[in-house]
Every structure is written in C-alpha cells, then in structure tokens.
Amino acid sequence: MKPAAFDYLAPRTVAEALDALAAGAQVLAGGQSLLLEMHLQRVHPDLVADINRIPGLDALTVSDGTLTVGALVRHRAFASPGAVPGPLGDLFGRAVGYIAHPPIRTRGTMAGSLAWAHPASEWCALAVALDAVVELRSTRGTREVPAGEYFRGPFQTAREPDELLTAVRYPLLAPDTGVAFTEHRRTGFSFAQVAVGAALTTRDGVITEARIGLANCADRPLRAHAAERALVGAEVSSWAFAAAGETAAEQDAAPVPEPYADVDYRRQVIAVLVARTLREAVPV
C-alpha cells in the first residue's frame, strides 16, 4: 500500500518545527514507526515535519551526573563502547542489540521510541526504571515530565499533539552498579514478548538498591516496584531473585493474552526472565 497524500516540510530550527506542530503536523525523525503506519494507511497526516535538518538535536551529552539524549540520537549510537559512561552505558549497550535489526538501529531514535510508546519498547521500559525525564517543547513553552508519568497506555503518552519531544535525560548510575538486560521473543525480528532491564547495587552481599523495568508486561512500560521492595535488604541469592521474579509476575505485571502466549504463559516468562536478569546484574 501507499500512504495517502500529504504535505512535507523540512524545518531548519526547533521554532519552525514547533510552528508546524501547532498547525497539526506529524513529526518525522527516524521514521521507523510513522512511515510504516502511513504505508499501511493506519495514520493519515496532512503535514509531515522532517526534523532531521535541525542542528543540535543529535547531541549526546553528559553534564553534572546527567545524560541528555537529543531527539535525533540514533539507536546505534549506544552500541559504541564509551558513548555513555559507566554502568548506564553498559546497560544501554546490552539493550540496543535487541532493537529490531541493523537498518532500523541505524535510522531509528531513542526519542522516537518514547514518542511512539509501543508497550514492547526496550527504551520505554528503561526510561521508567531509571527515572528518566522527558523534555517536551511547544509554542506554549517547555515542560519536563518524569517517565513514570509520561506513559499512559499503548501508544498513548502525556505529550500533546503540538509538542516536540526534544530530549530525554537520565541520571547516571553509580560506578558500583551492576546491570543486565534480557528479552524473550518468538523470532529474531519479532517484538519482545517480555523484556527486562535491571540495575542492582549491593554491599557485603546484601542488596541495597534495585531497579527493574518491564516491557510488554502490561499496556505500558512498567517499573516493578513490588519486586524491588522485596529485594532491598535481602541477601544476594538465587532464591531472592526467584522470589522477586514471582512478585514481578503476580503483583507488578498485568499481561494480556497474545496469539502465541496466553496470560499464564506470559506470567511464567516474566518470572523466569526477571530472575535471570537479576542474576546477571549482580555487581562483580
């Protein structure tokens, strides 16, 4: 199928892009979601604003303990060792290999994933788990929304139609944090049936902090708060991780049936994957 007719605009400044959004434009960055939906004629924008010519939106910077990811930073940037310092860079490097396949990682953007808000998105789950902040700009001004409040449901966010997601900010993880990311899917090119990201801090064999992000375990990305609470203060052990996996599956997650996976199967996968990810995240 071919997309319906639309007008194309390539703004050269953020201000021009915001004016286009105020006029009802859809944003084109990587285009890996929008263009597919247009070809399938599930969305019919009258105006598409291509922001790829706006300078500065491809910046990836670290300052005062915060990583700022611009709207045009591609997935592949996080596959480069040292692109992001410390455990946060290690976690992003582990996650990015699960995102689709090389052509999509070359064009697609982290910010685009957060704007599209697919429940199976790896970046969305990590944003929630890591207390990321989403920067939204419009002709009315700029606001920042915590990732935990940003996602509202499948493909639904706090972003208003006239707002441009210009950056995502993450606090850097402490140097002694251990991280891991695992994913279960039917084929190498399928969306994740379940994906789990974890960051653990321990002291003298006791867990002092835990962060667990879940993808495709509900209608939006989740942070497994109940499982995290069960872990803090517990000794590092396979038993503790298995119990946290069960807690995540039963108390944190709200899976829905899929064509190849009913709810009971998906809860079992969540429990196993959370436990496995936590074992891999133990700091060495």
TrEMBL record:
Keywords: FAD, Flavoprotein, Oxidoreductase. Gene3D superfamilies: 3.30.465.10, CO dehydrogenase flavoprotein, C-terminal domain, Uridine Diphospho-n-acetylenolpyruvylglucosamine Reductase, domain 2. The keyword Flavoprotein applies. One of its GO terms (molecular function) is FAD binding. It holds the Pfam family CO_deh_flav_C. Coiled coil: none annotated. Residues 1-175 form the FAD-binding PCMH-type domain. SMART domains: CO_deh_flav_C. The keyword Oxidoreductase applies. PANTHER family: XANTHINE DEHYDROGENASE SUBUNIT C-RELATED. This is Molybdopterin dehydrogenase.
